[in-house]
Recover the amino acids of this structure.
């Protein structure tokens, strides 16, 4: 009986150690995944910063700004030309 009890106790201890090792492995894997995700996020952030700072990106921003100004000027010309249509006319004209 004592041998059976010792065997069961040893088996339970072995199972507990194995489970603890498995949990430790899971934590290690989880830590590695978190580190990898942080590294990828930092790389993406660095790459995005480099693209924003690049000369081509600056030229693109300048081009968009110039086109926006052109559109605004065109809109002002249209408003001036057609403002007569929006002004209230006195009755009888």
């Amino acid at each position: 009986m004592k041998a059976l009890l010792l065997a069961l106790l040893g088996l339970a201890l072995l199972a507990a150690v194995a489970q603890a090792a498995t949990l430790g492995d899971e934590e290690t894997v989880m830590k590695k995944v978190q580190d990898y995700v942080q590294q990828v996020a930092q790389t993406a952030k660095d790459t995005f910063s480099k693209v924003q700072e690049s000369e081509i990106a600056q030229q693109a921003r300048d081009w968009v700004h110039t086109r926006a100004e052109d559109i605004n000027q065109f809109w002002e010309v249209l408003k001036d030309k057609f403002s007569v249509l929006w002004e209230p006319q006195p009755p009888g004209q």
In short: The radius of gyration is 37 Å.
